[in-house]
Design brief:
Residues 1-280 form the Amidase domain. The chain is an alpha/beta fold. It has one domain (30-295): Amidase signature (AS) enzymes, CATH 3.90.1300. It has 10 helices and 5 strands. Strands 2-1-3-5-4 form a 5-stranded mixed β-sheet. Helix 1 packs antiparallel against helix 2 and helix 4 (116-131) packs across helix 7 (184-206). The longest helix is centred in the middle third of the chain and has 23 residues, at 184-206.
């Protein structure tokens, strides 16, 4: 579950991308997640981005679990080509379940989503390179290579080399390049303009539907380390969830079944306008109850044990 940006305090967390970072709950069921969300959400004066206002009753929404009369928008750009066959099959089956529960399914067009992935991987690394610059071994944090006679520069280099993983280093370098003189407007500035267009697309879509839905990812999970040498392939797995993050709205992912071709779980993503997190729990709870009834139990009890005993 990704709450509305600013609904859950980030105080005490290491800042990665300040305009995107948002803590959220995980749970075995929609109701469990709502109970945790209810505890986590609220204003915190120690977080400058924290929302000071009334928060939706997500627990009551999860317990209600009713979609009758609701309009559910299917995003045209987040389905079809590039999505695994088994992922699409479980997604469309879930849509049929929601329709059978009384929801009206409509298709919405969000043309700017085509550029969301590129925009995100300019904005996030740019903010990352700025935020993580503070970990220089001089003021706080990890410190290695501090032997007699070592220069400040050598200690910084040794510490940052030891403390940051390959992917973090890659993003710092990319972000520093995007923010460098002569490239700021061409890359970071353009990415922020795309972000504005994505926010506008969401506003138009939510004028047509109460919530929006899509597969959570175009494929099922890849094997550990399988794509670590191909960052572009890894990044493409985020294509459906990145627009929510860029717009600062709320989103939820829940299991929709197992893909026929590899027997791995498929995610179903639900999105709602900012501060309308309760809608996610209302729809998610209704869908979960119907699917669990079909499966004869929660999906975790049906998933195969890969590479070991169950």
């Amino acid at each position: 579950m990704r709450p509305t940006y600013g609904a859950v305090s980030r105080y005490g967390l290491i800042a990665y991308s300040s305009s995107l970072d948002q803590a959220g709950p995980f749970g075995r069921t929609v109701l469990d997640t709502a109970l945790l969300h209810d505890v986590m959400a609220g204003h915190d004066s120690k977080d400058a981005t924290s929302i000071n206002g009334a928060f939706p009753d997500v627990v009551a929404a999860a317990r209600k679990g009713d979609v009758k009369g609701m309009k559910i928008g299917v995003i045209k750009q987040l389905q079809g080509e590039g999505y695994q066959t088994g992922v699409q099959a479980r997604f469309y089956e879930s849509l049929q379940v929601l329709a059978s529960l009384g929801a009206q399914i409509v298709e919405v067009d969000c043309p700017s989503f085509e550029y969301a992935l590129a925009a995100y991987y300019l904005i996030a690394p740019s903010e990352c390179s700025s935020n993580l610059a503070r970990f220089d071994a001089m003021r706080y944090g990890l410190r290695v290579g501090d032997s007699d006679g070592a220069s400040a520069e050598s200690v910084m280099n040794a510490t940052r080399n030891a403390g940051f993983g390959h992917e973090v280093k890659r993003r710092i370098i990319l972000g520093a390049y995007a923010l460098s003189s002569g490239y700021y407007d061409a890359y970071y500035g353009s990415a922020q303009k795309i972000r504005t267009l994505i926010i506008q697309d969401y506003a138009k879509a939510f004028a047509q539907a109460d919530v929006l839905v899509s597969p959570t990812a175009p494929t099922t999970a890849f094997k550990i380390g399988e794509k670590s040498n191909d960052p572009i392939a890894m990044y493409l797995g985020d294509v459906a969830t990145i627009p929510v993050n860029l717009a600062g709205i709320c989103g939820m992912s829940l299991p929709a079944g197992l893909a026929d071709e590899d027997n791995l779980p498929v995610g179903f993503q639900i999105m709602a306008p900012a501060m309308q997190d309760a809608r996610l729990y209302q729809v998610g709870s209704a869908l979960e109850a119907a699917l669990v009834s079909q499966w004869g139990g929660h999906l975790i009890s049906k998933a195969p044990a890969l590479g070991g005993s169950k």
